[in-house]
Amino acid sequence: MIRVELAKLFRRPRTYVIAGLLCLLPLIVAIFLATTRIPPPPGQGGAFLSAVLSNGALYPAAAMALVLPVFLPVSVAVLAGDSVAGEAASGTLRYLLIRPVGRTRLLLAKLVSLIVFVLFAIGAVLVTAYLTGLALFGSQPSAGVALPADVTSLSGVTITPAGLVLRLAGTVCYIVVSMLGVASIALFLSTITDSALGAAMGALAVLVTSQVLVTLDAAAGIRPYLPTRYWFAWIDFFREPILWRDIERGAGIQLVYLVVLLGAAWANFMTRDVTN
Amino acid sequence: MIITRDLTKRYGRTVAVDGVGLEVRAGDRYGLLGPNGSGKTTLVRMLLGLVFATKGEIEVLGRPVPKRVKEILPAIGAMVEGPGMYPHLSGRTNLAFFDAAGPGGGRRDRRTRVGEALERVGLAGIDRRPVRAYSLGMRQRLGLAAALLRTPQLLILDEPTNGLDPRGIREIRDLLTELNRAGTTVFLSSHLLAEIEALCTRVGVMDRGRLVLQDELATLRAPTGRVLVGTSEPERVVALLDGKVEHRDGQLLTVRHPDAGALNAELVAAGIRITEIGGERRSLEQVVLDATTTSSDRVEAT
What residue spans define the domains of chain A? Predict the structure, then answer.
């Protein structure tokens, strides 16, 4: 079933359209930066954006910071919201279930295909951003990569290209875990409603609410438990030394959301009448 | 093959299926008849473990449903409320996906299996066009092919001839009869009387969630003890048979008499010209109307 899900994922044009759009945003930003050479003031604008002007090799990290707040979670929410509700709407859910595909297996296959999609999308963004960065900003050959000052708050710290790759790998893992949190919200809603759009909207509503509350001092009491609170903790991978505290907390929170919501999705799906 | 006891499904306050005791035997061609909204589809979904019963028991192929439904589903081919396909993929790919999704059957002969199923339903020549571009009839055939993919022992089909033209309906009927002769039990639901009358050996009639009738078609259509007589001299017949004529419609008379042959001899002996004569059988329509007369308050759906 997992193989079938993956085949379905990669035979749908929309998968490539979404990935293409995700790649397009950093590309557009890079073109503007490269032609004007006006860096955002430190502390503002996307993280890393001022640093990439001197070193294109950092552009993948900058691209992550660009797609993470809105674009990536929206696409994950759309796909996850569609995963069960979409099958129900097209009438294929009942045929899968009587094939028979166990309901637990079906949910697992959907989750795996979402993970693969996130990896695929992030991978595509990283590769295109790396190429864009090199082409438009150039790189510092062999001397090692200087970490951006506004991130490390220390200028002149350098890491090896291998170190950069490791840190990017850590970033990818962290973002996948964060997106799984999003996916579990949408997947849970997708087992409740037969409307894919409704499930995606619901998940986005949760995320937007969370992002608003994160910035609200009056909501400080619940801040550590909000799903988007630690989304940007992966930036800590680019500090020297790496600051693990927020990364660990963020991953922990996402795992709790994942387990609770997937459990709820499973419990709901197992006992649900499939009437569509 | 299929046995249900006191099967009931409630959605909130509405009762979709009410105390149904279905019995489908091995080798049957069973037709479940009923207007739209009479609970046929809900019943079929419960048999397949898609919808969970509020009350009652289901046994399919000797296993309790939904508890052990996974063991029997591989031996069942089903179509529920129209085919469900991925519209952007071709018919072949759709079938291959469904084939690969479940247990059993190797990858190697998947192509053969899909090809054979398509051939059975008359779609052997379909190309790579996506299902989106198919006509309703083609989709219906494709759904049937999906049900036949694993040469099932039991076919459960909900409105299988929807969207087909008369020739297509005939083809599907012949296919189902052929499969049935080869040992497949066929259970189908329909709101079309003629379809069930032409295909089935056993009939169940649903009305507002209840199974109001279930019997062999031959029994239901047993002679009524009346003979229909066509004659150019109806007055003479009425005079001769005195009181046995129940109904007169121009030159067509309905006579209470157990044996058409004996009545014919009697009339001919009296020198009366007979243009046609035959024992009256109840039509399935009459049977169904009789079984469902109580529902005068129903708002007809179709």
Answer: 2-270
